[in-house]
Fold these 2 entries.
Entry 1:
Amino acid sequence: MPKRHGGASVDLQLQPLSSLPGVGPRVAEKLAARGLTTLQDLWLQLPRQYEDRTSLTPIRALQPGVAAQFEGRVEAVERGFRYRPVLRVAIGDDSRSTLVLRFFHFRAAQVAQFRVGARVRCYGTPKPGQLGLEIVHPSYRVLDDEDAAALGDRLDPVYPAVEGIGPVSLRRLIGLALDRLPDEDALELLPAELRQRLSLPSLREALLTVHRPPQDADVAALIAGVHPAQRRLALEELLAHHLSLRRQRIAQQAHRAPALKGLALAERLRKALPFALTGAQKRVFDEIRADLAKPSPMLRLVQGDVGSGKTVVAAMAAMIAVHAGKQAALMAPTELLAEQHLNNLRAWLEPLGVRVAWLAGKVTGKARASVLQDVASGQAQVVVGTHALMQEGVAFRDLALAIVDEQHRFGVHQRLALRDKGAGGAVGADAIVPHQLVMTATPIPRTLAMAAYADLDVSAIDELPPGRTPVQTVALSDERRPDLVQRIRNACAEGRQAYWVCTLIDDSDEVEAQAAQSTFEDLSRQLAPLRVGLVHGRMKAKDKQATMRAFKDGELDLLVATTVIEVGVDVPNASLMIIENAERLGLAQLHQLRGRVGRGQAASSCVLLYRPPLSTLARQRLETMRQTHDGFVIAEKDLELRGPGELLGTRQTGLAGFRVADLVRDADLLPQVQALGERLLAQAPDTAQRIVARWVGGAARYASA
Ligand code: ADP
Ligand code: MG
């Protein structure tokens, strides 16, 4: 494929993927479902991580937690059953060590492959098992005896999965797209002067490096995500997001919104509450009230630590909309959380004569039709739900306030989709749009907030309701586990409830669910006759809800759970939280989990169980948890502790959706991003537009937002 130059390359970048050999309508459709429609989209489909298959590690030298490739012969095969079928294959090599491969789902043909003596090459991350190291669902290949089976000569990129397209095909397609990468000048959008100053490679070079790491590449840097090629891409990606947020903000401010001024209903709610608002709640409500009174749309983020009482502030804001004869919507990221909001709002609002409707994925058929009708007629004054609120077919009569809880779980686009419900579709420049209120319990340091929320005004509820005693936090080694059973008994004897959180963050949902299942069984036995419940991510939503509700209603004493309980769950009577493998969680997540207790009057405690030996970093994290309860302090500490290479944390930054950038790891790029962003918007709006389109997509949408 010849390279193209100049103007032609713009077209090339936008060339549809159907121009690649092997991409028929079916494949194209699957790619499109992932937002991949042009060559450029595939260039920017960046590896999530790398696998190093360039060498073989003797089994004896394998380390827990460190991914590696190794080879050996099948020594024994065992098919068993523990809650579900399991296949275990022992592999040994010349280093005379053995490792166990464990499979939970497998086909008969797979079992047959593992003859004793067969040669197997595997890649995976070992962890301590019952009989030494084991790997759950490794990638593996059974080799012929004669098979020389060459080793890879460079790092293998691992791409985010695309449903319906296998990893090998996906890699091939990305390779084909890369073969058509235009030359440097045609591709580059960043000013040369900036790249030089920061010693960053061109976009072309950066893309080729991350997709096809050269043999002499700095492997450790690539794996840690700090290679100059990755930094270069991160800079451009952060810039694209920043630009899109800024432009959106500018466009938003051009819209009109209903000026909502009547406070009588909000006042009635406040007076009916069983508690007085904190000073911080009052202040933030005042900020919201002032925004709502203006004829331009509010765009406000409320940051408030877990338990700071954001919901009631949101409810009061909703009352301003309802008083004006309009509607308010509250959207939460999980059904559990949405349902909790529903219960709170019903308890608070129905006595005031306000009608609250419920719309979630599981509301179907006639019930759904009837809710939709109430929403469309305005009969439903406040509508609570999940993503289902944004679906097609949901039309409001007059939505004036859109509230999004735990915003870090949603993207900007989803927020806009809810906003658009106010205008009955995508909105033109002079449209009337709803006010937007966004709430988050994941405080992030100021610099990061500026980048992540460049389109929002920020309020902070930086005070907890009175009477909460800080959660007593201790870190205990695993060996003390048996003592905890007594501790749970004591708490429950006082009529309190407890959580036991099982985490295995390296593994799949499935393995985590299994661990929770067996912990549940053990604890049920040891704690009898206490009532123990279980929730995990692989249960049906209905069963999860039922168990959560039983716990909330005091019908269960102990809840064994995976991190599905992380966000927002409110059971004030729970006073003891035990977190297993706490050393493997990031600070923000630990803080969120701990926030589930200490919500009532009783003194609460949190036990962080860890498996020794602790790394320095893990020790510091646990220490921070013992010392402070302030989410903002914890966020700063998190940023400080998490240097480059600390990969565990990437899941918890919460600011999901980046392909390569990591707001914590790449925080030092943010000042550049901001300065450059303002300059481009002022001097080169076309370039700004192209950067946004390239990374964020939906360019047309932003143009009209
Ligand atoms: P979060 O900010 O984490 O979403 P919630 O809104 O769920 O917190 O509030 C946590 C708990 O505190 C709820 O039970 C709520 O009713 C209660 N609460 C809220 N504000 C106050 C207050 N000012 N005084 C006492 N309790 C409050
Ligand atoms: Mg909340």
Entry 2:
Amino acid sequence: MTIIESVNRYDTGDGALPPDFADWTSWQREVHELARRKDAVVLAHNYQLPQIQDVADHVGDSLALSRLAASAEASMIVFAGVHFMAETAKILSPDKKVLIPDARAGCSLADTITADQLRAWKAEHPGAVVVAYVNTTAEVKAESDICCTSSNAVEVVESVPADQEVLFLPDMFLAAHVKRKTGRSNIHNWMGECHVHAGISPQDLEAAVHADTDAELYVHPECGCSTSALWMTTVGDIPAERTHILSTGAMLDEARSSTARKVLVATEVGMLHQLRRANPGTDFQPVNPQASCRFMKMITPEKLINSLRNETDEVRVAPDVADRARQAVERMVAIGRPGGGE
Ligand code: 13P
Ligand code: SF4
């Protein structure tokens, strides 16, 4: 069995090592040695395979990793995540070499809107402020006023004067969360969704909650079930104090101080690895164990080491696009909670 076949069996985020790849220690040593020799820092998103999270210099949510990319002293960044994240790192650090172990690691949510579509939408709403989730291409960011992540989406929208229209893109579930939190009615949303989070359905949530009546609930705002989670709290199906709508970084903050026996987690399953490490006393279980992002899982241990050895795949953003996108990304980095990574 190849490494790729074996890591594919570890998509559940339980942190166990493939029994047929015994030499993880020398793999880790080589990653660290190559990174040191090449003056590289390895950044990994919370949804990466457990082995990749464990070897990285920093693990975090997309906001924390953007901040780390902006302040990194190393001359090379190896981004174990999806393409828009590595592109954001390049926009923030244009003079560094930014690598992604597989440039085909895309994002179904980012693919729901193009720069042309955004230009047409803006033309329908002259004067509106464009707030773009970081899960977008560099070309879309270049057409936006300010970016946000799930960690700071509410604060970013609150930074816009209340009487100004907002075009919020591309995730409709995150937009619904932002509308609820800010109480603003002048937010227009794009109808995009992430196939992984949209796939965590209200039915999955109801089944999990009814099977475990005293468990706490962590729900990522991109989830198809986030609206029904809040509905279930209003009709008394689940207590409001046990239901938390959180970005991945905020889930970790919550987990560190949790005294819950069990927490049901509605997000991509790679998150479970960090949650279990942060608090071994709590039993963290997925609401939908099939919620695995195949783009995130395209970054395998084999590809990570090849990326460092061969300095591939290099991420490039056209300088004029990067220059236009940078202001929106820098505004995002400046707003919101400082945590989200280790
Ligand atoms: P975070 O912003 O919580 O890191 O999430 C990124 C993402 O891709 C969600 O699917
Ligand atoms: Fe994109 Fe969804 Fe994968 Fe996140 S989980 S990278 S939003 S496809």
